[in-house]
Amino acid sequence: MSLALVAVLGTAVVLTNEPERQAVTLSLFGLSLTVLFVVLQGPDVALSQLGVGAAVVPLMVMLAIRRMRRDQEREADGRGEAGE
């Protein structure tokens, strides 16, 4: 059951087009991997996956998206690198 959930969510991450939704799906995928590691009796790996895969990586993706959009808005307003 856990392995099937990981497979379904992994496919969902790949098939998601919008970056924001992909970050959320990536977080759910990380949570499913955490459950799989607990089922396979790897609590130390599960804790690492919970911290990194389910929280830190999606957060970094969201921050990168925000930064890129902010930079694009600045360029559109004509305030590129020289205007800062």
Describe the model:
Its main location: membrane. It is found in: Cell membrane. InterPro entries: MrpA_C/MbhD. This protein has one domain (2-76). The chain is built from 3 helices and no strands. It has helices spanning 2-15, 19-39, 43-76. Helix 1 (2-15) packs antiparallel against helix 2 and helix 2 runs antiparallel to helix 3. It is elongated.
Write the layout of secondary structure elements.
Blueprint: H1 2-15, H2 19-39, H3 43-76
Helix pairs in contact: 1-2, 2-3
Q: How many H/I helices?
A: 3
Topology as a string of helices (H) and strands (E): HHH
Residue windows where pLDDT falls under 50 for at least 5 positions: none
What would you call the shape?
A: elongated
Give the overall average pLDDT. 90
The tally of beta strands, per DSSP, is 0
- The total tally of domains equals 1
Profile the largest sheet.
none
Helix/strand-derived class? mainly alpha
First-last Cα distance: 53 Å
> Which percent band covers the strand fraction?
under 5%
Please tell me how large the radius of gyration is.
17 Å
Q: What is the helix fraction of residues, given as a range?
A: over 70%
